[in-house]
Structures are given as C-alpha cells and as structure tokens.
Amino acid sequence: MSRSARRLTATVLASGALLAAAALPATADGRDHGHHRPAQRSAVVLGEIQYDSPGRDNGSNRSLNAEWVTVTNTGRHAVNLRGWTLSDESRRTYTFDLRLPGRSSVRVHTGVGRDTRHDVYQDRRHYVWDSRDTATLRDNRGHKVDSKSWGRYRDGSHRDGGYRGGDHRDGGHRDGGQRGNR
Predict the structure, then answer these.
(1) How far, CA to CA in Å, does 153 sit from each of 33, 128, 133?
(2) What DSSP letter does each residue of the chain carry, written as one string?
(3) CA dihedral defined by 121, 122, 125, 128, rounded to 10 degrees?
(4) Nearest CA to 73 among 95, 96, 98, 105?
(5) Alpha-carbon span 20 to 33, nearest angstrom
(6) Structure confidence by residue, pLDDT tens digits, 73-92
(7) pLDDT tens digits for 24-47?
(8) pTM of the entire structure?
(9) Which of these, 6, 75, 143, 177, could form a disulfide with 43 (CB 3.0-4.6 Å)?
(10) Average pLDDT by stretches of 10, the chain with 182 residues
(11) Smallest Cα–Cα separation from 166: which of 13, 42, 52?
C-alpha cells in the first residue's frame, strides 16, 4: 500500500472514531443533553403572604379578605393561569380562571368578593391559612410550580419564616384550634 493510501486510510479511520464517539449515549460524557431535563423554572411565583389577618379573627368577610396570598408573574409575557391551583397543607384548594399579565401580581383573598385584575376571591366563609402552613401553587397539569412555608414547630424550630402575619396575641385562634371548621 502506498504512503498516500495509508494516510487516507488513517484519516478515514480517525474520522470514523470521532463519529462513533459523538454517537455515544448522552450520559456517557457525564452531561444530560436534555434527555432528563428538569422542569423549566416558571416565571409565576408566590409572593407576599398575609396568613394572619390584622385585628381580631371574628370570621367577618372583611377579616377573611385580610388573609391573602400574592401570585406574581415575573416574566415579560402573560401567563394563562386557567386550571392552576393554590392550596394549603389541608388541601383546601382555589382554582384560577384568569390570565396574568407579564410583570404583574394578583392577590388571592380568602373571603367573598368581586374578582378584578389585581384581586380574586376564594369565596370561603372560613379561614384557610394557619400560623404554621404551606401555600402550594400548581400548574394546570398538577406540577408544583412554587411553595412557601411559614411558622414555628412545637419544638421552636422555624420554617421558612419572613412572611407577613403575627403571633396572634388576641387568643391564639390559629394555634389553639378555636376557629372551628375552616
């Protein structure tokens, strides 16, 4: 075999080896390459939460509506929230039926009211958010989009505190269970 034929054969074999290496499974090089990609982070997140309505918890609609969760679209484009849900640890669930414009928020109140662009109402007659609770936002396929927890456990350890709400100095209804069925 001539020298040029050997070079050509070596070049073809080297090219074949490169193609074979490129065809290896994506996990062989330690990277994922999108085959098992985690869910893309949503632009819609939970914002500020007022789990403890100011003043006495007298069960009035005004007191119920002073308890709310903010849902914020941090992206530039509107997001259709139809079928999305907001729930607490006891699985009390509110289902959205709105389109949230980009870079805007909607406040989800517990009580009864007339829905607007900035405020929607669960139309409940009992409180939802406890002093130790978790708000969970899910998309219309049931996938968890965001969640926030707050309050203290009995051993004194904290959850992700930092959210609005108080110690309930007017009798501890939320911790003592004196509110009745929610």
Answers:
(1) 42, 18, 10
(2) --HHHHHHHHHHHHHHHHHHHHTS-GGGGT--TTTTPPPPPPSEEEEEEE-S-SS-----HHHHHT-EEEEEE-SSS-EE-TT-EEE-TT--EEE---EE-TTEEEEEESS-----SSEEE---SS----SSEEEEEE-TTS-EEEEEEESB-TTS-B-S--SB----TTT-HHHHTTT---
(3) -120
(4) 105
(5) 17
(6) 999 999 999 999 999 999 99
(7) 443 333 444 444 545 578 999 999
(8) 0.66
(9) 75
(10) 61 52 41 50 96 93 98 98 98 98 98 98 97 97 98 63 37 35 34
(11) 52
Is 105:49 a contact under the CB 8 Å cutoff? no
DSSP string, 131-166: SSEEEEEE-TTS-EEEEEEESB-TTS-B-S--SB--
Residue 33, both tokens? 């390459």
Contacts of residue 45, defined as CB under 8 A and 6 or more positions apart, other chains included, come to: 71, 72, 74, 137, 145, 146
Could you give the CA distance from residue 109 to residue 52 in angstroms, rounded to a whole number?
12
- The set of residues, in sequence order, having a beta carbon less than 8 Å from that of 9 and lying 6+ positions away, is 1
Residue 106 to residues 5, 31, 38, 39: CA-CA distances in angstroms?
73, 39, 27, 24
